[in-house]
Design a protein that fits this description.
- The chain is an alpha+beta fold and 272 residues long.
- The protein is built from two helices and 15 strands.
- β12 and β13 form a beta hairpin.
- α1 packs antiparallel against α2.
- InterPro entries: ConA-like_dom_sf.
Length: 272
């Protein structure tokens, strides 16, 4: 813009000092210069306007949304299973099952793990006095070439602590990881007649660890796979007799295995 104005000043001075015979020529030149200058000014003003609009729509002034749906673990331990103290090859003495299982060590991940037998359900032998608010956490590792070498794995809560079949008919609710599809899960509550499906990339968990977290507040349950929340709804419908269970897949091909560990239950100090 400064160069345009400088050019106009110089040109005007030349016009003022030019002979009358050349005035007409310079008038035409002057008119041409003024037109060009006006176009240049309009162009610059339009550019500034567009830049200003872009700045306003770039998101700098957009309302920021804070997601407060992250899992918050309880801060007071109620129960934990430590497989590290158990002999390799043994069935953990705190757990009962419809089949069997064995404590193992594995490569790439520290600690000891329960190698779950095919088509087997597991429950704690001890009855836990669950408060109204508590959290449950555990880890799963799929030892397999691909996760769809397995069928579905289930976990949830039942009305009683008996074990007579693979998946208890007295279950209150359960979540299922459908490994055979590599990308699906289900959440079902018998007491609510609820059945919901959803998508989650299970395929990436071959030979990887998944952290499962459950947050319970009265009847409401939030379920997280790693940091992704897959459920946030009433699943208990007033059923206060809670007994955790986990059931291994019905089918395991090509030597695939499910490893379970780092199980813990926590509550909150104000509820303890």
């Amino acid at each position: 813009m400064k160069s345009i104005y400088s050019f106009l000043i110089v040109t005007i001075l030349m016009l003022l000092s030019a002979p009358s015979s050349e005035a007409q020529i310079f008038d035409k030149i002057k008119s041409k210069i003024e037109d060009e200058a006006e176009k240049a000014v309009d162009k610059q003003l339009n550019k500034n306007s567009k830049t200003e609009k872009a700045d306003k729509s770039s998101g700098s002034n957009r309302i920021q949304i804070e997601d407060n749906g992250e899992f918050t673990a309880g801060d007071s331990l109620v129960y934990a299973t430590n497989f590290d103290r158990m002999a390799n090859g043994s069935m953990p003495n705190q757990w009962k099952s419809t089949g069997s299982g064995s404590i193992v060590k594995i490569s790439r991940f520290s600690g000891k793990w329960l190698n779950m037998s095919e088509r087997t359900s597991y429950k704690l032998k001890q009855n836990i006095a669950y408060p109204d608010r508590f959290t449950v956490e555990f880890d799963l590792i799929i030892a397999a070439d691909k996760v769809n070498d397995l069928s579905s794995l289930f976990f949830g809560f039942t009305k009683d602590n008996s074990l007579s079949r693979w998946i208890s008919s007295s279950n209150i609710w359960h979540a299922g990881l459908e490994y055979m599809n590599s990308k699906d899960f289900v959440v079902s509550s018998r007491v609510r007649d609820l059945y919901r499906t959803g998508g989650f990339d299970l395929g990436i968990y071959a030979n990887q660890k998944m952290h499962v977290a459950i947050a319970v507040d009265g009847d409401r349950v939030k379920i997280y796979l790693d940091e992704t929340k897959i459920a946030d709804t009433d699943l208990f419908r007033g059923q206060k007799f809670k007994h955790f269970f986990i059931s291994s897949p019905l089918r395991s091909d090509s030597g695939a295995s499910v490893l379970f560990g780092n199980f813990r239950i926590d509550t909150f100090k104000e509820d303890f």
